[in-house]
Amino acid sequence: MLSIIVASHGKFADGIMQSAEMIFGKQENVAGVSFMPDEGPDDLLNKYNAALADFGEDAQVLFLVDLWGGSPFNAASRIVAEHMDSMALMTGLNLPMLIEAYASRTMSLAEIVPHLEETAKEGVKHLDLAEDDGDDLL
Asked: Model confidence over 2-21: pLDDT tens digits?
């Protein structure tokens, strides 16, 4: 089963994990990492390494982070680059992506990454009442 690290700027990771737990239930081998304003890249690396140590040496790990190119992404990419066979990194974290990650943890990294990419994209929608009479909402 895949281990998951959810990482973000500020406490977004904590909040989205709480929301996912309300919908999907408590998950094992999931760690949240929050990058706070008074922290630097080394703090992130220390938090990531602590989570990885809790998962164990043989863990397959999926990093789900908020933003491409931000500090949580940059620190995670340094770790993933050294473990390409057992780790993957995705950005654009949203709630549908996280819930589907929980539901798909038996997939391999090669399978889950494209699956979650599609799920995340499908999770972005808009309500256009001009083209809908609103009956579908009731």
From this structure: 999 999 999 999 999 999 99
